[in-house]
Amino acid sequence: MTTLYLVRHGETFDNARHIMQGQVQGKLNENGILQAEEVRDKMINEHIDVFIASNLHRSIQTCEIIAVPHHKAVEQVPLLSERDWGSFTGKYIPDLQDVKEWPDDIESLAHLKSRATNFLTYIKAVYPGKTILAVGHGIINKAIQSVYYRKPMSDIKPMTNAEVRVLIL
Fold first, then answer.
1. What is the pLDDT of residues 92-126, one digit of tens each?
2. CB within 8 A of 90, min separation 6: which ones?
3. How far is CA 52 from the centre of its chain?
């Protein structure tokens, strides 16, 4: 049995300002650092074999904080990076609520769910029987859960910053 602790990164400066980050590196704000430290403190007595983060700074930063007491390095896995929002990147999210047509440069849901499937396959193949803590992002984490539970993404409750969910693979 492989256990996956799926975590969303802590709050960033752009999260707080409601800016669409996508694949921008991002940086945790003070609240995001505190959120990551809270997860670290909750997980301190858990046996975790592997720490994984997306290749985006906000996830790496969150994962490194959580991994400190375990004295383990953080592996970067680009499959776990956030959805590419194309020309929506950097936009104020409330301004996008009424947009009827999305630009063609946004990563498709099919591609996103393919990455999510590949991530789960990677975890099961490379770390069978291990316990993994993986720090990703809101939309990719939603896609991973959609694939795992075999439900539409709209049926998956969004994760808050630094929220942890457990998947048994």
1. 999 998 898 899 999 999 999 999 999 999 999 99
2. 19, 20, 24
3. 10
